[in-house]
Amino acid sequence: MKRLLNNDWEFISSWDDSFLTGMPAEKIVRIPHTVKELPLHYIDPDDYQMISGYRKKITLKKEEGKRYFLQFDGAAHIAVVYFNGEKITEHRCGYTGFTVELTPYVQDGENTVVVKLDSTENGEIPPFGFVIDYLTYGGIYRNVYLEEKNSAFLKDVFVITPSLNSLKVELEYDGVNGDEEVRVEILKDGKSIRSFVTDASCSKCHFNVEDVLPWSPQDPQLYTCKVFLGKEGETIDEKEVRFGFRTIEYRQNEFLLNGDPCFIYGLNRHQCYPYIGYAAPDSLQREDARILKEELHVNAVRTSHYPQSHAFLDACDELGLLVFTEIPGWQHIGDEDWKKQAVVNTEEMVRQYRNHTSIILWGVRINESMDDDEFYKQTNEVAHRLDSSRPTSGVRFLEKSSLLEDVYSYNDFSHSGSNPGCKKKKDVTPDMKKALLISEANGHMFPTKSFDTWEKRQNHAVRHATVLNDAMKDGEHIGTFEWCMFDYATHKDFGSGDRICYHGVMDSFRNPKLAASVYASQNDEEPVLEIGSSMDIGDYSASHIDQVYAFTNADEIRLYKNEDYVGSFRPEGGKGLKHKPILIDDFVGQLIADKEGFPQKQADLIHECLHAAAKYGMADLPLEYKAKLAWCMMHYKMKYEEGVRLYNQYVGGWGGANTLWKFECWKDGECKKTVAKGASTKLTPEIKVSSQELTEGDTYDMAAIRIRLLDEHENLAVYAQLPVHYEVSGALELVGPSTSVAEGGMTGTYVKTNGNAGEGCLTVTVEGLKPITIKFNVRKGENL
Q1: Given 348, 440, 530, 696, which residue is catalytic?
Q2: Interatomic CA distance for residues 611 and 277, integer angstroms
Q3: ω into residue 447 within 30 of 0, thus cis?
């Protein structure tokens, strides 16, 4: 029997040994817990660096033949666990879980668990010892479990699929004699499709399973392996593993999934959230996976720079996201004890995460560290010994680095906007026969805020598209993980002045920036059309609208100005991105001939000159076009005032009614979506809620609220930097401040359950607009 142990923990923010013997707590908390809620901007890492204490009473019935275990999925960063006053274990990694047996110390009745938790950046353990480009937070931030077992039990079950119709099940036992019966059963949707019987002397079972459906990003079919341990006809333990039938192979220049070529394209993800740091419940972890798959439409994610929540990985399994996960670290390699801990971290990572079908690669180097062959021989050996089914890699910024792993992962920051998106393989890897993966790109090369100018936001998106496109088309890369999914808080050595790394294709609340549409547009299930510019002449130097990109999965973009047809624009052909951004660089088009009644030759000449004026500006118009314009005016007897009118009307946009631009997304001969851009005076909040159905039980539940302010044409109002106020009632409480400010027209907040069932309400009021109330239904239930 296994149950969550997340409620009613006593907490102190400053450790005192008397806490072991009854010192009063500061407050009662629930897990997941952060040692301190933090602001969105200007975080001081010293605020969460503390040695704190957690304490909980547990009532147990001590029985002969029973064993008791306590499992922590994540406690940042050095946890010393006491049980009934006895120190029973110390765990020195904040990113992997650990289990400790309580049996020798259990008392019949009330028992006490105390955790002394060091959340300082202690240089004795990874990832600490030097600078780190992310915050590491503190707290018991993942689930805690209490498990009761019989004296003999299944310690571990590991499922491998050597082929698409065969299984290998590796078994570990504890307390068995060897004559116990073991039954392995494979189920699909609760129905048994194959079973196998052996005894507890068997540590590896091999058998075939016919007519199964393979797991893939397009169709992530999952099965269940149930293992029963029995004695004299009675089941004494059982363990269940969810898995998918899939094979992976890394060749010289391609990655094969189930025997078919598959280009990996994804983003890097940190596990942090505004205000709460790492302490997010399973529902929010799963929501991030959903956003990656269903909104960004990527097929992969790298869990930078450490193993992440099992709830997140479970969702990756279910949704079909390929995962590259790695040991904790950032550039620095410490002393021999530090390295030993990193090897332990490698073992814990592989053992704890290897049943996640979504994981396709183990990262066994410290992110961006220097070469250390003796050290990395150990991490590679551990990963291969514990999991023969997956290759290893390690993320580098080094070219021609010592390659002990199976795949060369390289942070390729070579793209600067006007050069190729990635380096040639021969210039990067020392072994051309092994696969090359881009593990990071862009990021710090072009930090972009949601409230930056349209030009910078468009450039940001084009850079993401360029790297992805060039890596796809060169035939030398097996995939890319660009940096990164969302903005995140960091140390003073990195980020902007407010200590935020604005490297994400989304903001910290997971609202999409323009660059998010590069990834979203690669899907074919739903139409995507995002325009890189506001199309407001006041956003342009000399009021000249120049090159604008449409990020879309359309075959064609048709442009209209005040309902008059301007022209049609299509993506470039060739290899690379399936749906490339479409360049729109002509905003005059057929308008002159159609509206002015000029002969076509005259209209074409004026169009050419005005198009050049839009590109260069009248003051800097090249001599060639000045001469053509002069000839045109003389030949067709046009007055100077007429030329000025044409320029203002068709290029500058002055002298007429407000311009309404309309972009149509055409695909397969149909208009699938329309985007309008024009003057606006009205704002409307768009509020997206991760879930309005919450569960209050063995722990609290949370919902993420993402807010965007839209103009009357349903475009993001990027200049709406307005206060947004929040009020909660009923079965909810607010997480974070009661007021936030829209940045680039976007913001967000969180609500959590407060221990009660029933209705909860959140009222969102944007300054100057009518309040909007969102209702939540909170039910009592089990979160496990």
Answers
A1: 440
A2: 50
A3: no
Which tens digit of pLDDT belongs to each residue from 212-267? 999 999 999 999 999 999 988 899 999 999 999 999 999 999 999 999 999 999 99
User: If you search the block for the tokens 């290029």, which residue do you land on?
Assistant: 651
Residue 648, both tokens: 């203002």
727 catalytic? Reply is: no
∠ Cα 569 570 571 (to 5°) = 135
**For residues 547 and 529, what is the distance between their CA atoms, to the nearest angstrom?**
16
Closest by CA position to 444, among listed 490, 395, 483: 483
- Joined together, the tokens standing for residue 759 give 């209705």
**Does pLDDT of 618 surpass 70?**
no
* 514's tokens: 């323009």
Contact between residue 69 and residue 149 where contact means Cβ atoms under 8 Å apart: yes
Say which range, 140-144, 536-540, 719-723, has the weakest mean pLDDT: 536-540
Q: Determine the residue type at 520.
A: A
Question: Which listed residue (326, 368, 405, 530) is catalytic?
Answer: 368
Sheet holding 670-678, edge to edge: 564-569, 556-561, 660-667, 670-678
Token output for 3: 């149950």
Percent of the chain with pLDDT over 70: 93
pLDDT digits (tens, 9 = 90+) for 313-342: 999 999 999 999 999 999 999 999 999 999
Q: What are phi and psi of 574, to 5 degrees?
A: 95, -175
Mean pLDDT, rounded, for 463-482? 97
Tokens for 47, please give them.
């605020």
Strands, E assignment, 556-635? 556-561, 564-569, 582-584
Q: Is 556 a catalytic residue?
A: no
Our CA angle for 76, 79, 81, nearest 5°, is 145
Q: Please give the single-letter amino acid code of residue 279.
A: A
The model's confidence at residue 783, banded by pLDDT at 50, 70 and 90, is low
